[in-house]
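Let us work through a complete example step by step.
Step 1: write down the sequence.
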Amino acid sequence: MAVSSPELKAFLIDTPFFGGLSDTSLECLIAMLAERHVEAGATVISEGEPGRSMYIVQSGELAVSKRGAAGRVIDLNRLGPGDFFGEMTLIEVQNRSATLVAASPVMLYELTARNLYTFYKADIHAYAMVMQNINRELCRRLRRADNRFAELAHAEREAETRLPLPPEA
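Step 2: predict the structure and record it as tokens.
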């Protein structure tokens, strides 16, 4: 179901995905969005499955997780209004990299790869802006991940220096 309203437009302008688009380009992209309602506890996307669309969170909260060693589930992040996800599969045509489960009832806007391609054909300059916005957000996420890795490595080194030395034989 395609969606459009002044409230939706105002909401989307404030999200990182739609920043810098002209009014006409924004209207074109909005017309391509499909509204999706997800119940709390439902899986929106699963790690490893093929992906053909991305999503913008309008309301609610999603838990992001990844399978670790021996299938253990590792909680990575929480997403809320204004966040988007699923964009990686549109850029690199790989399977989903994480699982997202609705932590509360969620309302999403879906943009399919086919619609994104249609947008590319209709307005290449606006498409380039959208891709630049996606790349900016991916860079922000990579920086946060780098910082977290550095924190974890530092904590591990600190823990190692506090361990008592084994008694000599």
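Step 3: interpret the result. The longest helix spans residues 124-162.
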